[in-house]
Amino acid sequence: MAVYHVPKPGFIEWLSDLGSRSVFIPEAKPPGRERLQAGTSRTGAAWVRQLAGQEQQTPALDLPRASQSCKGFLLPAAETVAKYGRAAGQPVAVAEAEIVLVGVRACELRAFAYLDKVMLEGEFVEPLYKARRESAIVVSCDCVDCAETCHCVLVGGRPYAEEGSDVNVTPLDDAFLVEPLSDKGRELLASKSRDWAEATDEHLDRRRQLREAMVERLEKQNAEFTLGATDENPPALPEADEESWQRFAADCVECGACTNICPTCHCFYLFDHAVAADSAERVRTWDSCLLGTYHRMAGGAGMKLTPRPELRSRLANRILHKFVYSPQQYGVLGCVGCGRCIDACLGAIDIRKVVEDLKQ
Amino acid sequence: MISENPYVPEPVKLVEVIDETPTIKTLVLAPEKPMSFRSGQFLQLTLPGVGEAPFTPSSSPLEPERIAITILKTGMLTDRLHECRPGEMLGLRGPFGKGYPVDELDGTEVLVVGGGVGLAPLRALIHVLLARLARLKRVSIKYGARGTAELLYRRQYDQWAGADKVDFTCTIDNPEPGWDGRTGVVTTLLKDLDIDRGNATAFVCGPSIMLRFTTYELMSEGLSADQIYLSMNRRMSCGMGKCGRCNIGPYYLCKDGPDMKYSLIQNYPNVF
Q: What CA–CA distances, in Å, run from B74 to A307, A309, B25, B42, B49?
C-alpha cells in the first residue's frame, strides 16, 4: 500500500479541501502563550474546530495525545435523542455536518472499536452514534511524544496505527508520511496523492525507527508495571466486595472525572422534559458509575435503593468492567491505556497501580 | 415492535385503571400499533414530559392489544402514574430482555414465588403456564404480602387454585382479625416443599430482601442455583444493553435478564 511523503503545506492544503465538513484538530500551542499553556506539552493539546473560510492551522501532531478524548464527537455529553407528544414520536437526526477528526491516536482508535461493539452490535443499534460514526473521517497519527501517564503498551496497544482509521500520518521533520488505511481514505486522498511523492525506503525506515523508539520510551516509563494485559489475556482481579479495593476507594472523591474523560466509558442516562403542553424531549446524557446516585431506584423505607451503596464497590465495578467484564462481554479490554483518568483524578488514583496491586 | 429510533416511545391509550390495593394500581393500555411481548420481557412506560421506568407487564402476552402494567406507588414517577385517568395518552418502548424460559419447562414442576407487588410480572407467567398446563407436571404458586389489604389480584386466586395440577398458597406477614390463612413471610411457605427437587424450576419476584431469603430457603430445601430464576430489576435506563446501568458482573439485566438464573450471578457481589 502506498505511503506518501508530503511536505506540511501539501497536507494542510488537503485538510483545507475537506471544506464543507467540520474539521477538528489538536491545537498547536499559540506563540507567546507558553506560560498559560504550561500543562500542554505534558498532557497534549485541546481539540479545536477549523471553521470554514478560516486559514487552516497546522494540527499539533507532534504533541502527546489530546487532553480530551474524541468520545464526545461521536457521543455528545448531552443530546436530544427523541421528540414525542400525544401522537407518534419522531426520531431525531444528526444535525451537524460530517466530522473529520485529525490527529487521533491509536489508543483512541481502539476506543472507537470498543464503542462500535457497544453501540452498533446486538439487537439494538444506537442511531445517532451510528450516523456520526459512519460519516466521520478519521485521520490518525503516530505518537512521537507521550504523556507521563500514557501506557498503551501495558494493555496490548501500540502508539501508532496500522488499521482502524481512514488515513494515518507520521510527523517526520517538515513533512508527514501519509498512508491511506481504508477505501474511504484512498478516495479522499485521490485528488492530491497523484501529485505526491511516494515515501522512500529511507523514509519508511525512519518511520519504523520512530515507532520503535516510542514503544521503547513507553515501556521504559511503565517499567515498574508488569501488567502485560491483552484483549486475549486480561488480568484476574478480585470481586468488588473484597476489602482490598478500599485502599483505593479511600482516595476517590466521587467526582466522575475519570468516566467523563475516558474514551471508552459510555454509561448514559435518559431523561425526559416537557418543551410545550403537547410535546416532550428525551435527552441522553453521560453518567458516571462512580456516583452514589447512579443506580438509585425508587422505593420506600426498608428497601435497598442502590445495589452498590459502598463507594469501594462502585470503584471496583468500574475497574472490573474495564479489565474483567469487557473481555467477557465484547472480547476486548475496556482500557486502552491513554492514561487520561490518571491525569484527571483529584485523588491521584493511578489505574495502572490499582491493577498492578490487585491482580491475582 | 422496534422502531427505527429505539428511544422513541410508541403512543398508547390508557383505557382502564384498576385499584388493586391502597398502594397498587393496574394501568390497562391499548397500543395504537400491536406490541407483542413474551412473559417476563419488560417495557419502558413513558409519562409524557415526565420520564419513563421499566415494568414487566402483568397481563398475558396472549392478549397484546390490552397490556396491563401493575404499579406500586413508590416514587416520583409512580406517584404521577397513579394519578393518570382513562383516556390519557402514555408511551411504551420495548419489549426488552429475554423473558421467562417457558419452552424449557415442559415435563417439569414450576414453583412461582412472589412477594408484594412482585406478583405482577409473575401473573404474566402464570397466565402462560395455565395455557400450557397439559405440558407441565405441576404448578405451585406461593405468595406473601404485608397484610390482607396488600394482597394483589385477590379475586383470581380461586381461579388459579381451581385449575388441575395447580396449587396456590398465600400468607400475610402478621395476623389480622378475620384472616384465618397463613401468617409469616413468604419463605415460611417454602419449608418442607412437596416438590420433585430434581425436576423443578423456581421463579421468584419481590423486593431485594425477599429475593435473598427466598433464594437461601430454596437452596436449603435442596434446589440448585441452576433451578432458581430471580427477577433482578434494577435501574434500567436504555433497556438495550448500552447505557451500562444495570450490570451484575458482565451481565446486563436489561438484555440478559431481567430474570436471571441464580447460578450465573451468585458469585458476584451486591446481587441482593
A: 17, 19, 12, 18, 19
**pLDDT of B75-100, one tens digit each?**
999 999 999 999 999 999 999 999 99
**Domain ranges, ordered by start, for chain B:** 10-96, 102-231
Measured distance CA(A106)–CA(B115) in Å, rounded = 52
A-B C-beta contacts closer than 8 Å: 148
Report CB contact under 8 Å: B91, A89: yes
Nearest to A81 among B7, B77, B209 (CB): B7
Please confirm whether the linkage preceding B258 is cis (ω < 30° from 0): yes
Task: List pLDDT tens digits, range A82-118.
Answer: 998 866 666 677 777 789 999 999 999 999 999 999 9
> Cell triple for residue A254?
466521587
Tell me whether residue A18 is exposed, middle or buried, using C-beta atoms within 10 angstroms of its C-beta: 0 to 12, 13 to 18, 19 or more. middle
B10-96 CATH? 2.40.30.10
Quote the ipTM score.
Answer: 0.93
Instruction: Let me know: does A272 contact B52? Beta carbons within 8 Å.
Output: yes
pTM of the model: 0.94
Architecture of the domain delimited by B102-231? 3-Layer(aba) Sandwich (3.40)
| Backbone phi and psi for residue A129, each to the nearest 5 degrees, phi listed first | -60, -45
The secondary element (H helix, E strand) that includes residue A207 is helix A201-221
Q: Which residue of A has its CA nearest to B77?
A: A298
CB B70 within 8 Å of CB B31: no
Going by the DSSP 8-state scheme, the letter that residue B192 receives in this structure is T
Judge: B5–A299 Cβ closer than 8 Å, yes or no: no
Q: Could you write out the DSSP letters of every residue in A5-28?
A: EEEHHHHHHHHHHTTTSEEEEEPP
